[in-house]
Amino acid sequence: MNILEIKNLTVSFNGKILLSDINMKVKQYDRFLLTGHNGSGKSTLVETIAGNPNYKIDSGKIFFNGKDITKENITTRALLGIFLGAQNVPEIPGLTVLSFLKHSVAANVHFQTGKELAMGDFLTNLENAKNMLNIPKEWLNRSINVGFSGGEKKRLMLLRLQMIQPKLAILDEPDSGADANVQKQIAETIKNMKKTTFLFISHQKNFTDLINPNKTINLYKGKITL
User: Distances in Å between the alpha carbon of 190 and those of 3, 86, 90?
Assistant: First the structure.
């Protein structure tokens, strides 16, 4: 079963075409690696899949779980089960990690089931995820990404992943800014989340070897090459 299918996709930014006639399929539970030189269109592609409105879809379609999501906004795509771990994550002073996680999980639970978040379940899952990733308790009361190192931001991304359990996780160079220990933790998380499909970008062979992707495609000047 294909969880993601892209048909004849052409994307532009400020009138400049960045992706041209992209066709690709990602099967459910794939560990799918997207490669290519800097400027080849990799980040443009994953941001477009996630629904970044800065990129204009000139033609083509994006299907997620068989549903045409080409015109859906970024919030709806996230609620449908698409998670984006971007390269450059914003700092949000005043919004704590705990509050952000609670609101994110509550929105997903309500969208998927129509029910309200059970706080007992949330706190239990949070404690389990925190312990699994060795996340210090005091991080939960800090503002989102404020004062965190590159590796710490990656660990917070893993905490979000564990709490949300998306259907499709798109990770744009998750190994960037992470030391060897954090890279290993990222790879282990990807391998252990059996019910999540992963589409990820990386330039580091040592990191990708840890994951052992089952499918790889290469982008060159906005087009898929063999």
Answer: 17, 16, 23
